[in-house]
TrEMBL record:
Keywords of the record: Cell projection, Cytoplasm, Cytoplasmic vesicle, Cytoskeleton, Golgi apparatus, Nucleus, Phosphoprotein, Repeat, WD repeat
GO BP of this protein: cilium assembly; neural crest cell migration
This protein's GO CC annotations: axoneme; cytoplasmic vesicle; Golgi apparatus; nucleus
Record domain WDR11 first beta-propeller: where: 22-318
WDR11 second beta-propeller domain residues: 480-820
UniProt keyword Transferase, yes or no: no
Entry-linked PANTHER family: WD REPEAT-CONTAINING PROTEIN 11
Chain positions covered by the region annotation Disordered: 1165-1185
Pfam families in alphabetical order: Beta-prop_WDR11_1st (PF23751), Beta-prop_WDR11_2nd (PF23752), TPR_WDR11 (PF23753)
Main location: cytoplasm
Protein name (database record): WD repeat-containing protein 11
């Protein structure tokens, strides 16, 4: 059991249940490490590490259909701190941008009143990180400023837009999935709407998966398997609108770019995933499901490795990894994704089906599955070393673990986190012509999914609520704020409202629970009634449940079969007696302590419409009498002589007796209850022990209709009727006062707990009100349709100032007395498990923690007090180099910043990869395109690519394939002759160069570039491409054709272009420069962008790896700006209060730093020399760059 501390102040919170169908797409896992999920009109924030809900956001009136976390690829400092920002769109077209920690909205945006189709934060420029792109149905794309809510631009398209996807390698490209096909936009920019209507392509339905193959004509034997079927539909994308019979309906479920390969896109159909190469508009790979397989719902492509997470209709998540093409024996026909791992399916029923999965974007090895019944299943991918069971027929090549950890080769005894992320679990996909690295520490791995967490919601409504007895001075030491919730399937859920977690789930009844009454802090009575038979009789179940043991027993024994249904049960204030009221049968009176029936009323007893126990009783006077009697007895037993000496023992005897009398049920105090009959007459009945006396009767009040409920506290008695009138009786002054509320049937009235607290909670069919009975006036009100969009099913007080409501959207809300639904501040909550999320800290604290984790060179060892054991041991490991440490910490903080790595990058870094690797990949890809070509257009494109890649012989073959009736037949034949006869003689070269420049000048850029490549003038070609703004093509060409020096010139020009104010993609420029090894320039740029900590740590890492030179005599860098980076970092650390760290960096900043040192240590007599330089503390690592 969890040790409880008593927290008298309960936080307002929402317990959520099943999801609405519109919530299906509303889930997102952010770089911040948290999952946001829409549930009806609320948004849950879930911490996947501890599997607990840490915030519920309430402001939407309609169902939430989309949620998106903001991106974290910016530099964090005190002015732009770590913050949790979330955008959510609902079915009425409203978008809210949240500050999640405080639960407040930054801004609200409304354009149209239809459900938002898609949302995305723009991440591709450094100027602003507040830009939010939204699809407003049917066909508008609007760019908003997500901080202020202002509209920047709006653009409409011809068809209905379903969703969009950005090209992760070139943010000016995006694709829209529309109801008819795909629209490609190539000029997307945040400053103005796209100028063109985009290039529209249609998808011919891929009805060629084996499940749909039509029987072929008898001449040809029917092909089998997905591959042959695919060969028939080579082209899936056409520019013409397909004829009606060719395309029945575009049943494409999803489109997204592959973040692991440039210019590749996937289309998801229920039975297959198509991988398209966009340069060819052609399928290069298919993942098909065999006939008996389970269809797909969703697929998420990974960025770190070429892999796909797929979700199937039975809730099974599978991981498919691209097969490496390095196998020399067979020529590759297409991209193949092999199934490497799958998790268990769930049991799918009418009401329970999987909705969506999300993948952790930082590590890509955690998945969360949302189920329609409100469950969230957290799966983690684990890598196990060891060979697979020998199964040669499967043909799967082994997966290897990578050789390095966090970008640097592993030391022999260095600790590592085995499953830190996807790319630290499996190595890169090999490509043709590359030899697999023979390395001793590269192990074969198997992947498995492990269920690491499960959150479950409330079952379907209706609910019956009852809060346990209130907190008093007597029970304060062991009080728990427990709420019992009776459900429609007969079980009772007990929630602890301090943490909002389920305390116990008890299966008590066989049918819907109608009501619950607590008889102590740890036990309650609940009743349920079955459906009536044809005589109108039911089976009544009344159960007594003891919470600590879970023991249940039928309180009425054998009674209960075939009798009129129980209407209500009422427990007296001292928990001595119980009244059970039936529909057409006199009431029963029970003694709870002994479980005996005291009285079953006579047949002529009036029909009860409402009943309440009086709070007055004679327990105190009884106790006084009893005490006096005991005292007398105690005195008689002691003789007078010993009187004085035994005074103390008498007192102890008395205390003994008193404590016994409280626990023993010897005393039966007298209690009263009142009830009304159908005419509105009020009866008063007294119960004492096992005697029942009839008291006074009060005639009905003419202004009231049929009385529906009564509440009594102190000297106030309140009656509510079926017409919405409330009648307040002051028993002391003998006054009554009737108030018509005009809200219809009063369903329930309850007084708030606490001495002298005369607030009253009233429930109607259409909402609720809180009244103050002292002043007889309304305090607050809530009504369906006016301020909430759910119907209230049940209601109770949970503390003296908070109410708890159950509503028909399947949620239970704890609200302030004002009954405004509100989100709570995250930092005010009592969580059972500690949550690691730096975003919850104050900005200053988060940055301090980060600086503290990144570098502690002032003490030779690294110390940390963070509860995460595995991370802790790795971060404390002295072998961990500076680079790896920076990468790890940015992982912990979820920064979207790529880091410097020393081995070659996987292809997902595209143009930043090493040239040789990049060239091989491109050749591989053209080879694949060649296999797949199906028309002259495709052949021409392949030939062009081959010429640019310098593969002239193969290009000539393709050119000669042109058929004689093609209009370009003559042209292509001549081109083939030209390519074969090109010699390096001066005149022919100059002629071709002249022709090429003329062609380029006259708008034939591609053809001119080809000619220049033929005569090995690729550097000129790159320059022309850049002049005409084709920066990406130029970078591509430089990578595949130029020697390193020329290539780096081209890329440096590109980096300058990226830094220019109109492009403003400095962060990308930094990556380009990094890949070229211009380390000093990167250091300067980081510093000029005021990223002081990054600059200083980057330079430090370069020094340590020996890539930059330091002046040995004084340990001072040669470049001046780099010195100031150290100085500024020292100032930053000082502003965060890390003085020793500041001193260290200041001491390394040369003369400028000495001044800061003096400021730091004024009047302390500490000399800067006392702080060792880092080189003395840590042995220098060998260069690995």
């Amino acid at each position: 059991m969890i040790p409880y501390t008593v927290n008298i102040k309960l936080a307002a919170r929402t317990l959520t249940g099943t999801l609405n169908l519109q919530n299906k797409t509303a889930v997102d896992w952010g770089w911040q490490g948290l999952i946001a999920q829409g549930c009806h009109s609320s948004i849950l924030i879930i911490d996947p590490k501890t599997a607990q809900t840490i915030q519920v956001l309430e402001r939407h009136k309609a169902n939430v259909v989309k949620v998106k976390w903001s991106r974290e690829n910016y530099y964090h400092n005190l002015s732009s701190p770590y913050c949790l920002r979330l955008a959510s769109g609902d079915a009425s077209g409203k978008i809210v941008v949240w500050d999640v920690v405080s639960g407040t909205a930054h801004c609200e945006i409304q354009e149209h009143s239809k459900p938002i189709q898609d949302l995305e934060w723009l991440w591709n420029q450094d100027a602003s990180r507040d830009l939010l792109l939204a699809v407003h149905p049917p066909n508008y794309i609007v760019l908003w400023n997500g901080d202020t809510g202002t509209k920047l631009w709006k653009k409409s398209y011809a068809e209905n837009i379903l969703s969009f996807s950005f090209d992760p390698f070139d943010p000016s490209n995006m694709a829209l999935l529309t109801s008819e096909g795909i629209v490609f936009i190539t000029d997307f920019s945040h400053s103005k709407p796209p100028g063109s209507a985009g290039k529209k392509v249609y998808i011919a339905s891929p009805h060629a998966s084996p499940a749909h193959t039509k029987p072929a004509p008898a001449a040809a034997p029917a092909p089998t398997g997905a591959k042959k079927a695919l060969n028939k539909v080579k082209v899936l994308i056409t520019n013409e609108k397909p004829t009606a019979e060719a395309v029945t309906l575009n049943d494409c479920l999803q489109l997204s770019y592959l973040p692991s390969k440039r210019n590749h896109m996937l289309l998801l159909y229920p039975r297959e995933i198509l991988i398209l190469d966009l340069e060819l508009s052609q399928t290069v790979g298919v993942v098909a499901i065999e006939r008996s397989g389970v269809p797909f719902i969703q697929v998420i492509p990974c960025a770190q490795r070429d892999a796909l997470y797929c979700l199937h209709e039975n809730g099974c998540i599978t991981l498919r990894v691209c097969r490496s093409t390095a196998a020399p024996e067979e020529s590759v026909q297409e991209l193949v994704y092999d199934l490497r791992s799958q998790c268990d399916a769930i049991r799918v029923t009418k009401t329970v089906r999987p909705y969506r999965m999300v993948i952790c974007p930082v590590n890509e090895n955690n998945a969360a599955l949302m189920v329609s019944d409100g469950r969230v299943m957290l799966w983690e991918l684990k890598a196990y070393t060891g060979r697979a069971a020998a199964n040669p027929s499967s043909g799967l090549s082994p997966l290897y673990s990578p050789v390095s950890f966090c970008g640097a080769p592993l030391g022999p005894n260095q600790k590592r986190i085995q499953d830190l992320s996807l790319n630290s679990m499996i190595g890169q996909t090999l490509i043709a012509g590359e030899t697999p690295p023979q390395s001793s520490n590269q192990q074969e791995v198997q992947l498995k999914f492990l269920l690491t967490g499960l959150l479950s919601g409330l079952p379907l409504p209706p609910f019956a609520l009852r809060m346990c007895p209130p907190l008093t001075t007597k029970n304060i030491n062991h009080y728990q704020p427990l709420l019992a919730v009776g459900t429609s399937n007969g079980s009772v859920l007990v929630y602890n409202l301090t943490s909002g977690l389920l305390h116990k789930e008890l299966s008590v009844h066989s049918c819907e629970v109608r009501g619950i009454e607590w008889v102590s802090l740890t036990s309650f009575l609940s009743f349920a009634t079955s459906a009536p038979n044809n005589m109108g009789l039911v089976r009544n179940e009344l159960q007594h449940v003891d919470l600590p043991t879970g023991r249940c027993f039928a309180f009425r024994g054998e009674r209960g079969n075939d009798e009129p249904p129980i209407e209500m049960i009422k427990v007296s204030h001292l928990k001595q007696y119980l009244v059970v009221v039936f529909r057409d049968k006199p009431l029963e009176l029970w003694d709870i302590r002994t479980g005996t029936l005291l009285r079953e009323m006579a047949k002529n007893f009036p029909t009860v419409t409402a009943l309440e126990w009086s709070p007055s009783h004679n327990l105190k006077s009884l106790k006084k009498k009893q005490m006096a009697a005991r005292e007398a007895m105690a005195r008689q037993t002691v003789s007078d002589a010993e009187q004085s000496s035994v005074e103390s023992s008498v007192i102890s005897l008395l205390q003994d007796a008193e404590s016994k009398s409280e626990t023993s049920q010897a005393i039966s105090a007298r209690e009263h209850f009142v009830f009304t009959d159908t005419d509105g007459q009020v009866y008063h009945i007294t119960v004492e022990g096992n005697t029942v006396k009839d008291g006074a009767r009060i005639p009905p009040d003419g202004s009231m209709g049929s009385i529906a409920c009564i509440a009594w506290k102190g000297d106030t008695l309140v009656l509510g009727d079926v017409d919405g009138n409330l009648n307040f009786w002051d028993l002391k002054a003998r006054l009554s006062r009737g108030i018509p509320t005009h809200r219809g049937w009063v369903k329930k009235i309850r007084f708030a707990p606490g001495k002298g607290n005369q607030k009253l909670l009233v429930m109607y069919t259409d909402g609720a009100e809180v009244w103050d009975t002292k002043e007889v006036q309304m305090v607050s009100s809530m009504r369906i349709g006016r301020n909430v969009n759910y119907r209230i099913l049940d209601i109770d007080w949970c503390t003296s100032d908070k109410v708890v409501l159950a509503s028909d959207d399947g949620c239970i809300r704890v609200l302030e007395m004002a009954m405004k639904s509100a989100s709570y501040r995250m930092d005010e909550q009592d969580l059972t498990d500690p949550v690691w999320c730096p975003y919850l800290l104050l900005p200053r604290a988060a940055l301090t923690l980060k600086a503290f984790l990144l570098l502690q060179p002032w003490s030779g060892t690294f110390t940390m007090d963070i509860t995460q054991v595995d991370m802790k041991s790795v971060l404390q490991d002295p072998e961990l180099s500076l680079l790896q440490r920076c990468l790890l910490v940015s992982r912990l903080f979820g920064d979207e910043n790529p880091a410097i790595t020393s081995e070659h990058l996987d292809i997902c870094h595209d143009v930043l990869c090493e040239s040789s690797y990049f060239q091989k990949f491109q050749l591989d890809r053209v080879h694949l395109q060649e296999v797949k070509r199906s028309s002259y257009e495709h052949t021409k494109k392949c030939a062009d690519q081959l010429l640019l890649l310098g593969q002239t012989d193969r290009a000539v073959q393709l050119l000669l394939e042109t058929s004689a009736d093609n209009s370009s037949y003559y042209c292509d034949s001549l081109k083939a002759c030209l390519v074969t006869t090109i010699t390096s003689s001066g005149p022919s070269q100059s002629t071709i160069k002249l022709v090429a420049t003329n062609m380029i000048a006259n708008g034939k850029l591609a053809e001119g570039v080809q000619l220049l490549c033929l005569i090995d003038k690729a550097a000129d070609a790159c320059r022309y491409l850049q002049t005409y703004g084709e920066w990406n093509r130029a970078a591509w060409l430089a990578k595949v054709r130029l020697n390193p020096a020329e290539s780096s010139d081209v890329l440096k020009r590109w980096a300058e272009h990226l830094c220019s104010p109109q492009v403003n993609q400095k962060s990308k420029a930094i990556l380009v420069l990094l890949s070229l090894g211009c380390f000093c320039k990167v250091g300067e740029m980081l510093h000029s962008m005021r990223h002081f900590d990054r600059a200083a740590l980057f330079i430090e890492a370069c020094l340590k790896y020996g890539v930059m030179e330091a002046n040995d005599s004084s340990n001072i860098l040669l470049e001046d700006p780099l010195l100031s980076a150290f100085l500024d970092y020292a100032r930053l650390l000082r502003s965060l209060g890390l003085r020793e760290g500041a001193a260290l960096w200041a001491s390394r900043a040369g003369s400028a730093g000495e001044q800061l040192m003096e400021e730091l240590f004024q009047g302390e007599g500490v000399t800067p020399e006392a702080i060792p330089a880092e080189e003395e503390v840590e042995p220098d690592k060998k260069s690995t760059e």
